[in-house]
Specification:
heterodimer; A: 171 residues; mainly alpha; two-stranded antiparallel sheet; 6 helices; B: 236 residues; 0% strand
Chain lengths: 171, 236
């Protein structure tokens, strides 16, 4: 018998497990975008340093075309989102905003599902706006892939509920 | 207090005067019987003495006639004594039944007509009685483990921690500025989500609450809102 005390502040408890709205998810997406762009340019800087170290005399910054940049960012975003959603169910942006992406059974997405969702989200980010129309706070990607983005301030995905466990309604 | 006075179910009181009267009758019978038996014996003795004087034939005659008479008188006395004893016991039983029925009613009638609490306060020095109670002895006899076993300590602890909002206290005392900022950003996001939802719902003239309950995998007491949205259940 173990006492459980929720680490979540009182004010936030009623929202835990509920599907998040547009603002939180947009802010999370913006944070993720910043992370990906920053990662690209950090990578660019790292490559530049490496090139400089190899041939200092002939060094020049690598050329980056717009198409190449977009393609790389696209690929990075897909990989980044797939890894985040298939492991902890959250990316850096979701962590900041206290969100988590869950499959319909409440667990983290499988890699294939996460990859499909990442491709869908990066290709058509405007699908997020469907939250406004949806009465269930679901984006277009959520509807197609039957996923949910919920408020979840806990550090890790909670273990599956035991049969005798009780649930508390929102205060 | 309801005026009930407990009375032992099988009380067998001894009632001096009543039993004495009954016993007196029975005793008289017994004594009468004994006197009769003594007289019969004396008659037999006298007859025997006369017999000794008058000679064996006469004595034999007296023994033949006197002994049966004495025996019959003694038996009659025993029967009278037995009768007296039985009558006394029956009378005692009747009296006990009568008192069993009568005493509770009398006590109830008395108790309902007086303020027993006031009477006790007036007549009894409660403080003195309490002062003489050895509380330590009572405490020593108390099975504290059994008392604790009946108490839901875990539930009480959870309830107390929940009411004092321990996580918030820990955050305020040891939480970093980053943690504070993150919580503020998250709460602001939730508030903005709610505001946007309300505005859109009003714009679309949508009635009722949004069904925002997520997958019900986390019914473990932490992530609470796994219940379907229903009016007052939904967070505002």
């Amino acid at each position: 018998m173990t006492a459980r005390v929720s680490p979540i502040p009182h004010a936030a408890r009623p929202y835990q497990g509920r599907r998040a709205g547009l603002i939180s998810r947009t802010l999370a997406a913006v944070v993720d975008l910043v992370v990906i762009v920053t990662a690209f340019w950090l990578g660019y800087a790292a490559v530049s340093v490496a090139l400089f170290a190899v041939e200092p005399r002939d060094f020049h910054f690598p050329d980056v075309t717009l198409a190449g940049w977009i393609a790389t960012e696209y690929a990075m975003a897909v990989v980044y989102l797939t890894l985040g959603w298939s492991t902890s169910g959250r990316t850096v942006g979701a962590l900041v905003m206290g969100l988590r992406v869950l499959n319909r059974s409440g667990g983290p997405m499988r890699p294939v599902g996460a990859l499909l969702r990442a491709l869908f989200c990066v290709t058509f980010p405007l699908g997020l706006l469907w939250i406004l129309v949806s009465a269930e706070n679901r984006s277009l990607q959520d509807l197609v892939l039957r996923t949910s983005v919920v408020y979840d301030w806990h550090r890790r995905i909670l273990p599956a509920a035991e049969p005798a466990a009780t649930s508390r309604g929102p205060a | 207090m309801d005026g009930q006075v407990p009375v032992p179910a099988s009380s067998t009181p001894r009632f001096g005067p009543a039993s004495s009267a009954v016993d007196l009758v029975a005793g008289t019978a017994v004594i009468g019987a004994e006197v009769a038996a003594g007289m019969a014996g004396a008659v037999v003795g006298t007859v025997e003495a006369v017999g000794r004087v008058l000679g064996r034939p006469v004595a034999g005659l007296a023994r033949t006639v006197g002994a049966p008479v004495g025996t019959r008188i003694g038996r009659a006395a025993d029967r009278i004594a037995d009768r007296g004893r039985a009558e006394r016991r029956r009378a005692e039983a009747d009296l006990v039944r009568l008192l069993d029925a009568l005493v509770p009613e009398v006590v109830r009638a008395v108790v309902t007509r007086i303020d027993l609490t006031a009477l006790v306060r007036q007549q009894v020095d409660v403080n003195q009685v309490a002062a003489e109670i050895d509380v330590d002895a009572i405490a020593r006899r108390l099975d504290v483990d059994a008392v604790i076993a009946r108490v839901d300590l875990i539930g009480i602890t959870e309830d107390v921690l929940d009411r004092i909002d321990l996580p918030e206290i820990i955050r305020e005392s040891a939480g970093s500025i980053t943690t504070e900022a993150v919580h503020d950003v998250r709460m602001t996001g939730i508030g903005a989500d709610e505001a946007v939802n309300r505005a859109i719902d009003r714009l679309l003239r949508r009635r009722g609450q949004r069904q925002t309950a997520g997958p019900a995998q986390r019914a473990d007491g932490f992530a609470q809102p796994v219940v379907p949205d229903r009016g007052e259940d939904s967070p505002r």
